[in-house]
Amino acid sequence: MPELPEVEVVRRGLARWASGRTIREVAVLHPRSVRRHIAGAEDFAARLVGVTLGEATRRGKYLWLPLGGEPKGALLGHLGMSGQLLIQPEDAPAETHLRVRIRFADEARTELRFVDQRTFGGLSVEDTGLDGLPLSVSHIARDPMDPLFDEAAFHAALRRRRTTLKRALLDQTLISGVGNIYADEALWRARLHFDRPTGTLAPARSAELLAAVREVMSAALAVGGTSFDSLYVNVNGESGYFSRDLDAYGREDQPCRRCGTPIRRVPFMNRSSYYCPRCQRRPRQV
Fold this sequence. Notes:
- By secondary structure, the chain is of the alpha+beta class.
- The chain contains 6 helices and 10 strands.
- The strands form 3 sheets. Strands 1-6-7-5 form a 4-stranded antiparallel sheet.
- Helix 1 packs across helix 6.
- The radius of gyration is 20 Å and the shape is elongated.
- The model has no long low-confidence stretch (mean pLDDT about 90).
């Protein structure tokens, strides 16, 4: 699933190519892709036609474009496992898994397409609160790249919760945007075992972990995110290249780039965790 760097790459593309444009026409080609819009596909289209899109915004793995006019609302998107938001020429051939097409009322003759092979992602039009957040996103925590992210509250929450480090990093109500890939990468950089209890982490080590999260995400953003196949791309269909720089994730049995010990993979929450057994020693408390 795309994580913060991949979603941020898409947000930047939408800010450049979709924000400020007025919608002329909307076609929903697969109703499952707007299933979160409870009023249905026809209402989804009706809410958008004639509306000007505002500045593309993101909270964790969710992104949205505010809608001009009244009532206040937003076009909200979640990419799920395989969703793509692409800017394409209107006359470009339709993608095999094209689900929603949004055309604009200008002379650029490009359109916004939602393409989703597995249909786990989706679009919806939602009302927004006084803070501008779509209502379904209000429970999502700020992400570590957000200037308003509360570090002290994050450190305190880690100490209070009876859980383990990786589970805490994946908890979107505590810190958003971190998924399986960047959790493993940040824990490797911080030399922390994924199963270490959060209550055992001193404030200094907690700060090191947060710094590692920001460091790995910044590095991924610089090269367009992590793309293992053609699914995770920017709005122009281009892949990111951070997969070449991964230190832990996906490197089972390959030597740790710090100490040479083979990286291990173990099952974790229906996924996998990758770690170095020497650099990231399992704590005695576990």
